[in-house]
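Here is one chain, start to finish.
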Amino acid sequence: MAKSNALISGMMAFRFFEGFLGHPYLEVFVRRGRDAERFTKYLQDIEGYKDPARMRPHAPGAVDPLLVMVAVTEHYPICAILCNASTTLTVNIISWNKAYSIFPLPTFIQRKGFLLRPMDNQCEGIDWDYLRPWWRIQDALWEEEEEAGNHPVWEQRRIGDRFTWTIEFSIRGITCKPKVPDFVLEHCHFRLSKKTDDGSGEGNTGLSWYDLRCAPLKAPVLKFQYTHGGPHYGSLVPIPSDRHEDFVGSWRTLVLQRTDRLTLLELQKMDPSDRPVNYNVIYGEYAALVKKPNRKLDFRVSKIKKPKGWRHVDEDIPRWYHAWEKKTDQSTQKSVTYLS
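Its structure:
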């Protein structure tokens, strides 16, 4: 898992935090390409699995007790886990050395979950037979719960923040070097906003849910990929102009403003012999971004072939996030319930 940057989620991760690991299958999320190939090869050659790559969940009780289902994702696995969650109950993640429960207070103390998608989507992927006797589903926070403030349903969240229950595993005796440092996953950001079904039309319920948004965040001066709380990563629809101001001052905006400037400086440092044929086009694109930093979400720039000596600034991400978080102040930001 460390070498492939794989993540475990689903009911096994949920039951881990309950202190019970008896589940018939393990769901592992890994990115398409070398990561997926490396991980499935390990399962087949070392662990002896014949067919570990199962793309769809099986009905409870209808699978081999030792089945490992490998979900191959197009983007960073955390995007797929967050964007496909049906309720807050299922947003639990296990990496190679840590476990994260993103909504632990309602899930394991209050024994309830909130909807993360419209109820007419049937909340697929939930083991209702297991949950029904012990947990209840609530569409959104009640008014008195919102006002109390001691809940994890805030507009701006990240993996491993102060609302997350994080358990660190012992890695004594493990000598392999992980492909991605812990701080990358722990600075993956997502956004919650409350939606309400208007109750009109067939199948509409009038219920509310929390729309969880997570999209890839990358830049030429970042070696690793992060996430921000933009539109669903699979959506190709640009954000409407009347909502663009929602992202001014956001985590995404801060990162891109800084990385655009640093990318421009790296381009200036390039030796003429290393510069691509379209160097002037690339340089012009980033110069324009520095002058007008609030780019639209669907803006695209040319790819850069990085020469030897190109500097990455991933080590600055935790410090940047701390400064941004302090500025937005989690203790005073709006609960998503008050958002339109």
